[in-house]
Amino acid sequence: MNVVPTGFVRMLPDDLKGFVAELYRKAGVTRKNAALIASLLVATDLRGVFSHGSRQSRGYLSLLKERKLNPRPRIRVLQETPATAVLDGDGSLGHFVCWQAAHLAVQKAKEMGLGAVATRNHHHFGGAGKYSRVASGAGCVGFVVSSHVRSLTPERSIMATGGASPMSFAVPSGSEPPLVLDMSTNFYASHADDFEAVFAKMPTVFFKSLGLGSVCHVLGGILAGIVTVNEQKPAWPAVNQGAFMLAVDVSKFVPPDTFKAQMDAFVGCASHLRPFPGQDRALLPGALEWEREREWTTEGIPIGREHQAALEEAAADLEVRTPF
Fold it and tell me: Which DSSP helix (H) or strand (E) runs through 78?
C-alpha cells in the first residue's frame, strides 16, 4: 500500500488539502479543524505513507456523519505538571488532540528538558510519524506510541497484547534527512494460515514484535488511561484509543549545532554503505519520505485508483465535487 501506485493521477498538495477539508466541513467539523486534519492527512500522503493519509477519510467521515465520533470536540487538559500532561480528546478523531499534545510536549521539553504528554478518549490518530516530526522540527528527539482498547480473551494469540500498535522516533539533523522511524510493531498476522511456518523460520522477530507492541500498549493505552477491556460505554461509540508522546530537547545534552553536524555525518556515511540484498541504495529510516516530500510538493502526489475510489465514495456521500 505504501509504494508508488502503478496507475495514478497527480494532485498538488494544496488542491488535495482544499478538497479534503471540504469533506470534513460537510461532515460537521469546524473550519479550523477541517483545515488541520486535511493538512495532516495530505502531509502523510506527501511522504508516501498512503495507508494513513487521506484515503482513511472514507472511514473517518462515516464515523463523524453517523455521530459515532464527535465532530466538534473541546479538548481538555485533565492534569498537568511542568514536564507532563494528560489531554482528553472529547470523543473525536485522535488527530486533533494528538497534534496539540505533540506541540505541548515540545513546549515542556524546551522549558524542562523533557516533555511527556498522554492522550485519551479519542479515535485513530493516523500515522505516528507526523507527531514525532513536531519534536524533531523543533530541535528535539521525538518518541510517539499509540494503542487501542483490546479484549484479551484466552483463545487469542499472545500477539494480541501488542496488536498493530505504532511506534515512531524522530531525530533532527542539519542538511541531511532527519532520522525518522515510523512503523507498526506487528510483523505478521498471527491468524494467517502460514503463521506457524513463518514463526518457525524466524521466531526472534516475533518475540521482538511482541515486546515492542506490548510496551506500546502500556504507554499509549494503560498509562494513557484507556481500559484494556472496554467495560465502560463511551459517550461516542468509536472512541477506543490513547497515545503517549515524549520530546527531549537536544540542547540540554549537547550543543545543537554539534549534534546536527554529527547526525549529518552519520546519515551521510550510512548512505555509502552496502545496501540490503535487492536494494539499490542504503537509506536510513525517514530518508525516502524526506525525498518524496520534496519532489511531490511540486510534481504532485500520485493518487492511485483505490485511493481515488475511496475519496470519490466519501465525496458522493457528502455531496462534494471531486477534483479527479
Answer: strand 76-80
What was the pLDDT predicted at 232? 66
* Encoded amino acid at 213, one letter: G
Distance CA 259, CA 262 (A): 5
The three three-digit cell numbers of residue 212, written as one number: 515492542
pLDDT tens across 221-254, in order?
A: 999 999 755 556 778 999 999 999 999 999 999 9
In terms of pTM, does the model score above 0.90?
A: yes
Question: Which set of grid coordinates corresponds to residue 218?
Answer: 502500556
295 torsion bin: left (phi>0), alpha (psi -120 to 50), beta (else)? alpha
At residue 138, φ and ψ (nearest 5 deg) are: -105, 15
Task: Count Cβ atoms below 10 Å from residue 285 Cβ, excluding itself.
Answer: 18
| C-alpha neighbours within 13 Å on the C-beta side of residue 71 | 17
Amino acid at 210: L
Report d(CA 74, CA 96) in Å as an integer.
10
Give the integer Cα–Cα distance in Å for 165 and 266.
29
CA distances from 287 to 67, 198, 260 (A): 39, 29, 16
What 3-state class would DSSP assign to 279?
Answer: coil
User: What is the Cα–Cα distance from 185 to 163, expressed in whole angstroms?
Assistant: 8
**Which residue's C-alpha cell is 528538558?**
113
Q: What is the pLDDT of residues 155-172, one digit of tens each?
A: 888 988 888 899 999 999
Least confident of 37-46, 153-162, 250-259, 305-314: 153-162
Q: Helices marked H in the chain — which ranges?
A: 13-26, 31-46, 57-65, 94-112, 129-137, 195-201, 203-217, 256-270, 287-299, 305-318
